[in-house]
Amino acid sequence: MTKRGFTHLISLETFNDPSNGYLVEDTCYFGAEVFVSKNHGEGECLSMTKGPVSCSHTWKIEKFSLLCEKQYSKEFSVADFPWKILLYPRGDSKEKDRSLSFISGPCLRVKDQIRDIHWDHQAKRWFDKTGYSWGWAEFMPLSSLKDKSKGFLVNDLCIVEAHIQFIGVVNNLS
């Protein structure tokens, strides 16, 4: 739309010139602040970080076979924001005694401690403080988790990794 925004930001010649640093190894990163107006005086502002902030967190769960109820990982920080992983070791209400269930996780992996063939799922979505109510009810069948030849439980230890890429923050303007 030419009514809002820029019709011409920089010339293509300037953009393509490697000495200017806009295009490096055929890669360019763009950032934007987007203002969404819901009503007069209300809205949201998306502030992007200068570059993605990536973080990995490893959760070592000992005495896994003794767990019955939901478990939370210790809190960890990504870009100064607190995170926790919620695990249902015997499955949530939909998958009780059939699957390992995770709630509130971005990219999660259960590590294969023997063969290095991990079990993982990746979510591509935005998270907010209320985003704890979604996840994977059927993350992994308990039969696979307990199969000793697969190496997901070794000496009653289960290792879970979370990989998070943080790109920005949405703030209310009201």
Automatic annotation (TrEMBL):
<dbReference type="Pfam" id="PF22486">
    <property type="entry name" value="MATH_2"/>
</dbReference>
<feature type="domain" description="MATH">
    <location>
        <begin position="54"/>
        <end position="164"/>
    </location>
</feature>
<dbReference type="InterPro" id="IPR002083">
    <property type="entry name" value="MATH/TRAF_dom"/>
</dbReference>
<dbReference type="InterPro" id="IPR008974">
    <property type="entry name" value="TRAF-like"/>
</dbReference>
<protein>
    <recommendedName>
        <fullName>MATH domain-containing protein</fullName>
    </recommendedName>
</protein>
<feature type="domain" description="MATH">
    <location>
        <begin position="1"/>
        <end position="34"/>
    </location>
</feature>
